[in-house]
Amino acid sequence: MQGTVDGFSYGLVTPLVAYLMACLGGALGLRCTTRSMLVNRSWRPGWLALGSAAIGSGIWTMHFVAMMGFKVREAPIHYDRAITFASLGVAIVMVGIGVFIVGYRGARGTALLTGGAITGLGIASMHYLGMASMRLNGQLEYNTATVSVSVVIAVVAATAALWAAGQVRGFLWSVGASLIMGLAVTGMHYTGMAALSVHLHGTSAPASGDSPASLLAPMMIGPLAFLLLAGVVVMFDPLMVMGKPVWSPAENKPGVPARELVHHPAARPSLRTHRNVTHHDSRTPQNR
Q: What does the DSSP 8-state code read for residue 255?
């Protein structure tokens, strides 16, 4: 028996909130990645780690907010808590690998394609692992072609977002990129959900696991608190408080530490000027 699947049981509320969560995590993560390319090498791992956690948390929160609106009319849905939070770890780790590759190798060429592919596969893995945490009186079945399309969307979206982060063009640029990334990630989620069908079992045995309501509090409070904290760190950059780092505006190379781009052309001209004055003074007595 096929179950009746409804992914919009609360109308547009859950898709819109899910989209905002994806945009928030994307904006913070991309901004952290951009700043990592403009600071001293010792600061770079911290910014990249913060960006990875922000993107992973935003995507994970987006997924389960969207799942609040997912219903199977003939069977109640529960969730396995361990697998649910394992999907958060997978998202942060795989997104982190891709972000670190781009952060250290630059947002171009092989590094960009490799980082984008790993990040995109991390997004897709989080989605389908989160779906595997569902417990209901039935079996989940997927259309292979639609699943493949959802994975391609995730990889393309991640690659485009990492490329945008590597352009180092200011805060508004990161915001625009995050809006596009949020749209693509949310689109990937609902494309994956479109591939799903549920085959119900004949028995009426209750499903094991936690209900969506029991997971709502930790799901919202934990990642949202982290995203707010990350937002505060981005807004009040410690380097900006202690003194704005100096980098050369004439040379923009993503993945190169800021201090390696700094040149000091004033040192040698001042030395030459001193030598010229000394030479002039030494010849003055002969002229007399």
A: T
At 156, the amino acid letter reads: V
- The 10s digit of each residue's pLDDT in 44-84 is 898 899 889 999 989 998 998 899 889 888 888 888 888 98
Beta partners for residue 199, in sequence order: 2, 139
Three-state DSSP class for 197?
strand
pTM for the full model? Answer: 0.75
Q: How many Cα atoms within 13 Å fall on the side-chain side of residue 125? A: 18
- Cα end-to-end span (Å), the chain: 114
**What token pair was written down for 95?**
């997104």
In angstroms, the Cα distances linking 128 to 87, 138, 184, 282 are 9, 17, 16, 82
- How far apart (Å, rounded) are the C-alpha atoms in residues 214 and 36? 38
What is the gyration radius of the CA atoms in the chain, in angstroms? 26
Tokens of residue 228, six digits: 């707010």
**Which residues are bridge partners to 2 per DSSP?**
199
d(CA 281, CA 288) in angstroms, rounded, equals: 12
Q: What is the dihedral of CA 172, 96, 163, 43, to 10 degrees?
A: 60
CB 151 within 8 A of CB 121: yes
Q: What is the pLDDT of residues 5-43, one digit of tens each?
A: 888 888 889 999 999 999 988 888 888 888 887 777 778
- Ranges of H-type helices in 106-211: 109-132, 144-165, 171-194
pLDDT at 1 over 80: no
Note whether 153 and 189 are within 8 A (CB).
no
**CB neighbour burial string for 154-167, b if at least 16 within 10 angstroms, e if fewer:** bbebbbbbbbbbbe
Average pLDDT over residues 86-109: 91
Cβ-based neighbour number of residue 21 at 10 Å: 27
What is the C-alpha separation between 26 and 58, in angstroms, rounded?
Answer: 7
Q: Which residues contact 283 (CB under 8 A, 6 or more apart)?
A: none
